[in-house]
Design goal:
The chain is of the alpha+beta class and about 150 residues long. The chain has one domain: Jelly Rolls. The chain is about 25% helix and about 25% strand. A 4-stranded antiparallel sheet has the order 1-7-2-5, with helices on one face. The longest helix is centred in the N-terminal third of the chain and has 31 residues. The termini are far apart. The structure holds fe (ii) ion (FE2). Fe (ii) ion binds next to loops.
Amino acid sequence: MDSYNQATAIIPMSLQIFDGLVDDVVNMVEMMKSLKSDKDKLSCRLCHVFDTKCPKWHYDNVKYRLIKTYRGVGTEYMDPNNFPLTIANILLRNSHIDFRVVPEKFVQRANSGDILIFRGLQGGGFPVLHRSPTIRGISEDRIVLSVSLY
Ligand SMILES: [Fe+2]
């Protein structure tokens, strides 16, 4: 096979993957639209990440945020059903507390392909504490979609 034929053999596959990604992003946005009121705003961001973007435990200042990792390690979060509300309340009200002290036994890790929808600080309930997973070296990267409702 010469180089021209190799290129034409690769391009249709790449377009298929791209179309699949676009379809999936549209589906994720549609899913978030179902939570949206007339006054809410929706934003969508697809990032290729090469470092640990948000390493500290935090809450997002949104109503809801959908996070889906297409490639690489998934987002880490505290399962609100297992994480004691007393600890969560202390963390929420005391931003000076070092969030690295969060007990490891409460940490949940999403897999690539999982769909996470976190309630944020504007969501009118208890928000979900989360952080970016640690990227270990230049060979690791992530492709992450976030769809936010404000
Ligand atoms: Fe976040």
